[in-house]
Structure formats: C-alpha cells, structure tokens
Amino acid sequence: MKRFLLPLLLILSLGSAQAAPLAPDATVKQATEEIRDLIRANHQAYSADKAKFYAVVDQQLVPHFDVRYIAQLVLGKNWRTANEDQRTRFANAFKNSLIRSYADALLENYDSVEAEFQPLRLAADANDATVRAKLIRKNAPPVNLAFAMRPGSDGEWKIYDVIIENLSLVTNFRSQFNAEIKKSGLDGLIQRVESGGDYLKESAKGA
Amino acid sequence: MNFRFLSLALALAVSACAHTPPDDPSDPLEPFNRAMFSFNRGADRYVLRPVARSYGEVVPDLAQRGVSNFFNNLKEPRNIVNGLLQGKPLQAASDTGRFLLNSTAGFAGLMDVATDAGMPRHDEDFGQTLGRYGIGPGWYLMLPLLGPTTNRDLMGRGGDYYTGTGPYVEDSVDLPMTALDLVDTRSRYLSADSLIDNAIDPYIFVRTAYLQQRLGKVYDGNPPRELMYGDEGD
C-alpha cells in the first residue's frame, strides 16, 4: 500500500500545481509579452484611436494590478476615514488617470527597451513578493525596476506598487495627494483626479 | 570644553534622527527649506541646467562616459571604507579590486573595465553607514546650492570628506574637479526635469524622492516595509 501512496501523492501534487496561479515573476513577464504583442500588431490603430488603446490597457494590464489595494496604500491614513463611496470613486479615478498618464509612454517606447528579469526565490506560502527587473536601454545605464506583488482575491498574484530606482509610485502619489487633501479635503482631491490625467501637468504652471 | 560641546551637539543631532516614512517626514524647517528650494531652482535654471545641457550636447558620449567613470573611480575609497563599516567584507574586497583594476588597466579610471570583469559598482557613503547603524534621517534640510539632505546625511557628508579627494588634493585642482563632477552628474538628470516641473508640488516631489532614494540605498534596495510605506490605512 505504501508503495502506491508516494506516486499517488506526487500525481496529486502535480495536478494541483498545474491548477495553481502563475508565479509572480511569470505573471509580470506574461502580461508584458501580451501587451507588447498587441501593440506590435495594432500600433497604427492604437495611435489613431487613443480611447481604444486605453480600453485595451484597461482590459489587458489593469487586471494584473490590485487597484483597490493601491488606492488604499496611496491614501494611507486617509483611507480609514474615507467612506465606501469615496474609496470606490478614488480607486476608479486614480486608475483612469494612471492609464491616461502612462499609456502614451507605453505606446511610444514599447519596443525601445528590454526587460531583464532577475530570478525570484519564493517560499510556497509567501503572501508578498518583489519581482525585480533591469530595463536595458541603448546608450544609457540600465534602470532598476521592482514590482511589489501579493495574491489578489481571485488567488492570482497582483501588482500593488512599482518601484523605479528606489522610488515607489505609491509613496510618490501619497505625499503629493496628502498635501492636496490638507488643502481641499478628500472630496476635493477626488474631483481633481476625476477631472482628468492632466491634473499632473496643470499644477506645474503655478509652481 | 570644545570636545564636550561637540559631543553634546552630536548627541542632540542624533536624538533628532527619528525614523519617519519618506511621505511623512520630519520637516520643521519647511518654510526655510521652501525658500532655499526656489532659490536653488532659480540657480539651476539660469546657471547649472544650461551648462549641463551644453555639456551634454557638445561633449561626445564617449568622453562623457570617461568623465563619469573617472569620478566614480575616485569614489571607490569611500565605497570600500563604508562597505567595511557596514559589515560587507566581500563587497569591500571586490570594490578594492575595482579600484586597482580601473586605476591601472582602465587608464586612471577613465574606463570601467572592472564591471565587465564581473565586479559591479556599488554606492556606499557614510550617511548610509549611519543609517545601517539604526540612525534615522531626522530633519529634512534643503541647503543653498548643495541641495536636499537630512541631519544624518549632513553628518555623513562630513565623514565622506575624509574618504574623498578633498584632504589630499590642492583646492586649485579639487574645486574645478568638483565643478566638472557636478555638471556631469547634472547632465545625466536632465530627463528628470519634466517630472519635477509637472509635479503637483515640486518641493514635496523632490523631498519624497530624495528620502526614498536614501532609504533604498541604506537598505540596498530592500527597505523594511514599515519604513517604506508608513501608515498603510488598514
């Protein structure tokens, strides 16, 4: 009996391994490949119709991000006092503004940089992972990039922060938004973020 | 008497060095810092940025790389000493190898042959060493012309003076070298200008960026979560 038990266990564990979600680094790699293939095939159409490209990014890339958790981290202490409506509105507006701010850069640079992923060692029961990569550019030093990830509600690994050369997207926005909340309140901030991705640029004129 | 005063000042400075997350730092001098920040941006706009821009356009890429390599090589003693102080003997040994190889086969540091030989560059300084010893950044400070720093990193700069060229090279040579290093470094950050200009509040953007970058360096790219994110809102 014992002789059969081990192979049986092996088969069972193999089966469950196949059904298990992709590893964090494989998730990022796959998402990158998918969006690059899409841009490669449809570059002209996307450049002509930005709204269409934003929708593609929303469908293809955004599911790999934990939007709600990002919103929570970005608001920090202000998340606790926000009500459910404010939380949802902020998360949605922030997501849209990020798409608008970064999709254009993605469309422009999708083929000029190569990502070199570093091997990831992860305990089986880990609930937090940092996927590290180097962006290799022509005639310029490489850029260090890291994706902070954790399992989402569907069990798949989701990105909750992008860290470029030690600078965290979450921390950058949090400090900026904190100042805005102090000035005009959480609703004021949400309105500003909802009014468009250009809020990043408009403010520069006053500085 | 002098010594007693010095140690008292040092103790006060260190006790002021609390651990604070980069997005919510201790910045009691903010009004002064903001004034210095706008002064620095003016000086940058009218002096440093134009010079760095022409430098980037006129000097060939290869020569620029030589200049960067040369100054990086002069920083190896600082990397070695602070690597040792932070308990990284293997890294310090590798940096010693870099310094020897690049100073000779790399033509006085103009070429970075050590990286290709499998000895990558590190970046250590005394401010990071103090951070590793558990000293937090303390107050954020914006110095005229010298830019952003903290209580801790200002003390670190004092220590770095002794591992730099300052004490060993005459001022008539050291000052022009420092100026060239500054222009060369600035030219590599020209692309970051639009990030600062487009920020909601450029002062806060630079403050957060500086503090995050230092926190990352103290922990070699792997800062503890509670220092990085602070209040996570849950």
TrEMBL record, chain A:
Residues 1-19 form the signal peptide. The keyword Protein biosynthesis does not apply. InterPro entries: MlaC/ttg2D, Tgt2/MlaC_sf. Keywords: Signal. Coiled coil: none annotated. Gene3D superfamilies: Tgt2/MlaC (3.10.450.710). Pfam families: MlaC. The keyword Ribosomal protein does not apply. This is ABC transporter substrate-binding protein.
TrEMBL record, chain B:
PROSITE patterns: PROKAR_LIPOPROTEIN. It comes from Stagnimonas aquatica. Belongs to the MlaA family. GO terms for cellular component: membrane. Keywords: Lipoprotein, Signal. The keyword ATP-binding does not apply. InterPro entries: MlaA. This is VacJ family lipoprotein. The keyword Ion transport does not apply. Residues 1-18 form the signal peptide.
